[in-house]
Amino acid sequence: MSTITYTIPNISCAHCIHTIKMEVGELPGIKSVEGSEQTKVVTIGYDDPATKEQIEALLAEIDYPVQK
Length: 68
Ligand SMILES: [Cu+2]
Fold this sequence. Notes:
Number of domains: 1
Helix content: 25-40%
Number of helices: 2
Order of helices and strands: EHEEH
Bound molecules: copper (II) ion
Distance between the termini: 23 Å
Strand content: 25-35%
Strand order of the largest sheet: 1-3-2
Radius of gyration: 11 Å
CATH class: Alpha Beta
């Protein structure tokens, strides 16, 4: 499993974390999604067929673009 950590500035409350968990969790290959509204940091564990490009594209699509 690969893990990737993102800072997502648009996270403002626990509901944002919940939305991200639900949406990202639906991608095939996602193993775990953990995050904190205090730090705005989300850590995602994934395996094939998920890719980080796909995860980043989905986050942008749901209005939680990652900080580059
Ligand atoms: Cu929120």
